[in-house]
Amino acid sequence: MSAITERRPAAPRMRLPRCACCNKPYGSRWLTEETAKSPDAPPVYQGNGYVVKEYSYFSGWRPGQTTPGRPPGHYVVQWTIWDGESIRTPYRPFCTLRCACAFADAAHEAGFRVKGGAP
């Protein structure tokens, strides 16, 4: 197999936290973007992360084609990388803002209040 078609290990299944209101799993992977260029052959990812998505193309003129005043082209590969651990949870411990408000409303209806009030 060539370096570009070589199979990489699959990303591990992540355990997502569960919402305190509806008990559904929530969160998404925290992803980063990396780009590499090479004049000879498409670059291969060398990092420790899991490649979630890979996009490659050739920019410019093909090797062997010469045009006065223009540099030769290069291969460009863009990777979307996940480190295998970090997840994005903006409303932790709730899945959405709607669940956070529903939980607060239910607690208020049940009679839970802050003792002493605001100063």
Structure description:
The protein is mainly beta and 119 residues long. The chain has a domain of 80 residues. Helix content is 11%, strand content 30%. A three-stranded antiparallel sheet has the order 1-3-2, with no helix packed on it. The protein is elongated. The termini are far apart.
Give structural attributes:
119 residues; mainly beta; 1 helix; 3 strands; 11% helix; three-stranded antiparallel β-sheet
User: Alpha-carbon distance between the termini?
Assistant: 70 Å
Beta-strand content bin: 25-35%
Order of helical and strand elements: EEEH
Share in helix: 10-25%
Q: Tally of extended strands?
A: 3
Global structural class: mainly beta
Across the major sheet, the strand order is: 1-3-2
- Envelope shape: elongated
Which radius of gyration do the C-alpha atoms yield?
A: 24 Å
Poorly predicted parts: none
Helix tally equals 1
Give the averaged pLDDT, no decimals: 81
The main pleated sheet reads as: 3 strands, antiparallel
Question: Topology, please?
Answer:
Layout: E1 28-38, E2 50-59, E3 74-88, H1 97-109
Antiparallel strand pairs: 1-3, 2-3
Give a short overview.
The protein is built from one helix and three strands. The chain is mostly beta strands and 119 residues long. Strands 1-3-2 form a three-stranded antiparallel beta sheet, with no helix packed on it.
